[in-house]
User: Fold this.
Amino acid sequence: MSDISARLHNLRALESLSMGRTVIHRVHPLAKLFSALIFIVCTASFGRYDFAALTPYLFYPFVMMALAELPYKLLLSRMLIALPFCLFAGLSNVIFDKAAAFTVVGVTISLGILSLMTILLKMYLCVMAALLLVATTPFTELTAQLRRLHVPAVFVMVFEITFRYISVLLEEVYAMTTAYKLRSGSKKALDMRHMGSFVGQLLLRGFDRAERVHAAMGCRGYSLKSIPPPRRQLRSSDVLMLAAVCLPALLLRFFMVGHLYMTG
Amino acid sequence: MHMADALLSPAVGMAMNVISITAIGVSAAKIKRNELSEKKIPIMGVAGALVFAGQMITFAIPATGSSGHIGGGILLAGLLGGIPAFLAMAAVLIVQCLFFADGGLLALGCNIFNLGVIPCLVVYPLIFKPLLQKSIGSRRLSIASIASVMIALGLGAFFVVLQTVASGITELPFGTFSALMLPIHLVIGLVEGIVTAAILCFVHKMRPEIMDSLQPGQPSKRLSGVSTKKVLAILAALTLLTGGFLSLFASANPDGLEWAIGKTTEKVFGAETELGASEDGIFEIAANVQKSTALLPDYTLPSDPDNPAGTSVSGIIGAMITCALAGAAGLIIFMVKFKKSRALKDSGSKNKEDQAQEAQTKEVQAHV
Assistant:
């Protein structure tokens, strides 16, 4: 159960981080979104053995983390979620791809191990790019940007409500499971036959609550079309940040600078 | 099962993103046309959040000692109808990708397709709904949900395999990979299906009106505008088109992006350097740059030219130096910032420290 409160805490921690006031936090969300996308596409486009060529990309998360004053431990703990599947796919490479790549001080490194390392590095870079985006952009700015990009209003609203209700429902789940456990001896998890009424009850309560809240908001003038997103011009500093991320990323991809000290 | 960025090639990821974005756009337009469903938006949000919270509710699977959790498209589709369920599912997946590092931005399209389009827009209208056409009873509801969840999960797992293999990042042969993934997901699907059935039966018993989208006769009225079949047809056409395009691309050129880069650089540099018909103009140039600027040329060990890695000890040293430099850059910025904020607080904090110390000594004295 500490799992639930840990997740709640994580969710809030990330959101409070996004309220910071550093240089990175002040950048236009569009610039951050685009630089993250281009960075991820560049990272993913490297070949399966390009470990060394990918290493210069580490500058992006490290420098961004320092500039935005983000704690590395919190972000690192998020990585663990993405790890299992990548590790599974990467380990299969170690098994199937046994040709030797090179030897270091008598130890032979196989191509499979090299590709496993590349997958893990890619995972780190891609996950960090997404996390850095959310940890430096407040949720309301993110959704305002989505509206400005003409993402359908219905969808943005569902997205907003989903995000807001996650912590509400998690709290409710926490209370309900605690109550269930206190009344059921020393059970560690729910009985499967109780799942129907347990989740069903949670759902019905959630639905009622949502309808009440929506009606209350409607009384105060909230509807799909009532909120035009505030306009925001791209400033020169935003363009500078976009260029500072994208140009090196693209140049490194096209010229494979990592190979400079590999094939020389 | 969430797809990850690290296992995808940009071409596959982008193609799936295009398909999923189209699906979201069409679905949103369809809901907008139906004025009834603005009331449904908060319910969609809550249902999405429930899928998320549901992953936290673990239950004991009888006779196995292991535990499972609910997740899913079919549950949402049963409660909300296919298209609203799809939008809710897409929202959940975006939240998971951004805030919980589950999946990635490039893999978002794949995940929305595998976990959203397949259960809500394919399995739900083709399997779940027809099974409940005549009447809705607990038994029918159970059969329909178990069958649909199993099929949806199986299909989803199959598409994960397809996308991974098409990306070519892993060595896993297609057959082995599917043989590993499919049985696991069918078993998970059985358990999930039973739980989904229990939840749907409960909700149906307590509030039959919530599941009105399942009532026979209702759907044709509620889903005015574009028909589900049309959406499906568009999606199928898109999949075939992009798939066909990609496979052509892939068979002619082992690495699509490499080929694209070769083409563009040929246009940019080809004429100037007079390399003629060579597609590797850029590599020539890069090699020249390398020769003049190589950091560690002397450390290179003689390596096999066919070796695709082309890595050597110098490569490792170089990579390590780069890592260290990147880390150092971050550390230096952090230190400078830390010092600045320290200097600002310094005068104030000193006074506070003194006060704290005084208070402590006083306390000790009081105890004595």
